[in-house]
Write a structure and sequence with these properties.
It comes from Isosphaera pallida (strain ATCC 43644 / DSM 9630 / IS1B). GO terms for molecular function: glycosyltransferase activity. This is Glycosyl transferase group 1. With 452 residues, the chain is an alpha/beta fold. It contains 17 helices and 16 strands. It has two domains: 258 residues, Rossmann fold; 152 residues, Rossmann fold, CATH 3.40.50. Helix content is 38%, strand content 14%. The strands form four sheets. Strands 1-10-9-6-5-2-3-4 form an eight-stranded mixed sheet, sandwiched between helices. Helix 10 runs parallel beside helix 11 and helix 13 crosses helix 16. The termini are far apart.
Length: 452
Amino acid sequence: MNRVPFPHSSSSADPTAATSSREPSVATEDWLAERPRVVCMMTTFFGSHSFGGDAAFVDRLARALARRGHEVHVIHCQDAFEATRGGVGPRAYEPPPGVTLHPLKSGLGVLSPLLTHQTGRPMLKTEPIRQLWRTIRPDLIHFHNLSLIGGPGLIDLAAQVVPDALRVMTAHEHWLVCPLSVLWTHDRRLCERPRCVSCTLRAKRPPQLWRAGDGLIRRGLDTLDALIVPSEATRRAHHERGVTRPIDVLPYFLPDDHQDGSDSPSSRGGWKGCRPYVAAAGRLVDYKGFDDAIRAMRLLPKLDLRLAGVGDQEQALRGLVARLGLTNVYFEGALNASGVANLFRHARAVVVPSRVPETFGYVILEAFHEATPVIVRDLGAPPELVELSQGGLVFDDEASLVHALTCLSHDDALRKALGRRGHRARWEIWNESRHLTRFGRLLARRRASRSC
């Protein structure tokens, strides 16, 4: 089926409300606005010891809370970063005023995250975390990526050590229902029938036998005041794969001071004035689907593809370009935030061809920030964002991808209309103040429910 909806059909639901699968979204109190709070973020990777992804959201949320007078602490696992970073070194990072970092580093190096991976519990990190919580005395503990800092056992520990604190978790990936987090099985296809042990072994990781049954994860989730995901598609995926508790949807946001793509000496690349091009950005790994975008370019000789990012599939992708004899595909390498924004600003569109169900798609918001439309695969959260914004096109096979690329490379009026809608939605739906208001109201409901 060659389906390229433009515009996508509009939804009658209010996309700005944090919603639960059990209760209405109306709330008047804002727990975060009542007084300054002490907030403790728990995540595996952060700051200098991170790779982007969920760490980017935690950083944006921490900064937004600190700007509003809250005291923010981020506890993360330096050992986990050292164990998984490969050739990637720590990056420059300076926490803003109001945000305090607590990196966990043991004398046993990789053994600490390995024990957590294999048991689903904080293990060697238990006592340091316990002491930090007792010192910080948080009003709110916000769990994020728990894979190597404590697993679901960390949620149980919080219920014992700081029972009065609100405890919520944002699931940024599908880690609760997939040991590899991305629902990509045996390195070659979308997971439809879980075979977690063989899939994990194929990925050269030790299987997590604690996942057999649902006891540890279920007990941890049952102690939470709220389980949050960033999209309706992700809520559905978790329910379909066995998570039975209510799940709240709270979309991501871009901060008000998000880096724009204005031309400046610090922006890499001179894309303004180039041949017409579409852009794509992300880790160069198989499940991101960049090879599908490359193959489409053989049918579009007057349009270029500029791909930003690095990853273990880069040489394979370069080989594909060579085999196809393409001269209209460019690898831009790793760009900083300003460079990515500049690349997006001058593109005809930004392509998101991921073969796995993305839980949100920050790259889409970054494109919308530059008033650039998107072309997304009909899978996971990206088409949901297109429907809410009316800011892009959706494809489901090569023919519909080529059609979408052709439309946005030739039709200036369509490109501008979709770009304007995406830009408006970025500020109306996915802005910092709206996100914090929704989050504060969600927390107020959860605090009130404890008294019932």
